[in-house]
Amino acid sequence: MHHHRQIYLDGAWRPSRGTDVIEVVNPTTEQVMCTVPQGTSADVDAAVDAARRAFPGWWDTPAARRAEYLGRVADRLEERAAELAVLTARDVGAPLAFARAAHVALPVLSFRHAADVASAYAYERQEGGSLIVREPYGVVGAITPWNYPLHQIAAKVAYALAAGNTVVLKPSEVAPLGAWALAEIFDKVGLPPGVFNMVSGTGPVVGEALAAHPGVDLVSFTGSTAVGRRVSRLAAKTVKRVTLELGGKSPAVLLPDADPVEAVPRVVVNAFLNSGQTCSALTRLVVPRSRLGEVEQAARQAAEAMTSGDPLAEGAHLGPLVSATQRERVRAHITGALAEGARLVTGGAAPPDGLPQGYFVRPTVLSEVTPRMAVHRDEVFGPVLAIEPYDSVAEAVRLANDSDYGLAAAVWSPDRDRALAVARLLRAGQVGVNSADLNPRAPFGGYKQSGNGREHGVLGLEEFLEIKSVQV
Once rounded to an integer, what is the mean pLDDT over residues 134-145? Predict the structure, then answer.
């Protein structure tokens, strides 16, 4: 068992001011596999002080030079890709093939794309009698989740650094191993001390200290909407900039002319990626009532074709959920939905057969879900798909938009113009038409209570740039 005993502070590995540790559990074996320091508010103070000292020099570093550092990080992530995929499979429970394709490949892309965008960006432009200048905020506090740990870190850290900010990262204590690997990489690429700092710990201690800290100029948080509200309240004391990427309850709308045999299996795969632990997952399937039987059959076949198992074994489509708490929460959602009148198509709350250990949940499809049910409104964050029938396209749009969230959506129709017309009506930050894949270079973020701000690309860079108007 490997124990991480230090945090990364001011260009070196240093002991935490605290003496407590956090146990990290392998969700497949249910065994503790390592420990990390349980950081303190004093650690946050030290990290922020280091980041503030490093900021003037990093800001003064040309964007192309900053981009070179990010390119080196991307190179080293690629060199360690096989190791990082195994690390993620153990840490999060993501199947190895998906860990390679998403959990590792996407962070590499983020560092490379942030470098390219920042190098090409025009930081000054003339507008009338004014010079409009974009410059970094200063110290960025990045608070990241466990579901895509390395990817979510990269989305914040790469762009914050590319823009000229310095960073204090608080990774998720539930799945911190990728963060440690990334900090090791930062330590080896020669980044000036204090530009990147990492303090492990819990949200109520380290996360809250970071959000409230007067020396943090911008806090970027990804996680639940409930915690996002808390981060916003804490940050409001110092009126700092806050960007939030929060929950989702994303609809996939099948228009009446869509083919369920083509569309439904793709929606099921999307809904169950990462064991359903994806904020933008298409977890509501909004379908014509007249085609409900066809849709249910296609969804049942797709879900039952998915095998649950050890994520390190090739061929497993679904790994475990990340924790016992998460497993019990998802099972309670399934039980509650059935009690409210949803109909079970496949799956259910019972433990999967043949998997006596691990935080596994059966791939579950529920039908005849209505807006009065909690499973229509609440983010389950597990492999659970809700089928919701409609009688008219206008009703389909209302159902799709009937959510506190607005992170993602999809529309299916062989008529591209018809699909686009509906896509424009959906209140979500990104909408897929038919089988269009998520573009990792496009801006990512949500409407409504799915958050504020965008990540990735030019707009993602601009979230980390303050605006100055100079009258000349």
Answer: 98
What is the arithmetic mean of pLDDT over 154-179? 97
Residue tagged 């998915």 (tokens): 306
Q: Which is the catalytic residue, given 34, 173, 208, 279?
A: 279
CA–CA separation, 230 vs 214, rounded Å? 16
Q: Among 14, 31, 12, 36, which Cα is nearest to 180's?
A: 36
Is residue 279 part of the annotated active site? The answer reads: yes
Contact 142, 161 (CB under 8 A): no
Catalytic entry in 173, 208, 245, 296: 245
Query: How far, in Å, CA of 289 to CA of 295, rounded?
Result: 10
Name the pLDDT band for 3 (thresholds 50, 70, 90).
confident
Q: Any catalytic annotation for residue 34? A: no
- Looking at residue 1, its pLDDT comes to 60
SS (H, E, C) 354-408: CCCCCCCCCCEEEECCCCCCHHHHCCCCCCEEEEEEECCHHHHHHHHHCCCEECE
Residue with tokens 């939905």: 337
pLDDT higher than 90, residue 314: no
